Amino acid sequence: MADLLRLSDTLASVDSVLDWRFEGFMVEGAEGLEPRLRLHVEGSLDLRCQRCLGGFVWPLRVDTLLQPVRSGQAIPEGELENDEVDAIEIDGELDVLALLEDEILLALPIAPRHQVCEAPRPEGGSSKESPFAALASLRGSPSAE
Ligand SMILES: [Zn+2]
Questions:
Q1: pTM
Q2: Contacts (Cβ under 8 Å, ≥6 apart) of 119
């Protein structure tokens, strides 16, 4: 994960290692053979909880089918009706690591957080909402403070 810089803000640790596979193949399309790319990613990310800033393990699984299209070329009509394949514009070389990063960013939860935060209340009190207050509001009971 240390190689995926755009993801570092969302992670509590970049020590995790992902298994990923990227393959290209041809399929029979409406106008003859068409290229496809499949990206498969699997692993566990150490995400940072937005509530308590602690880390938690989040299982990642991405399996995306892409149809490469030259820059400027119209997106094939079949693609617009097909939910299973996304068009991807490629101009010359493809930055596989950037694509990997894009797909992982799309798969991440919008607001990563523990279901229940177990972080201790900061010592000396804090103006920030404590995890306990958050818990209390979740239960619908009035806060003790
Ligand atoms: Zn938390």
A1: 0.72
A2: 52, 53, 54, 131
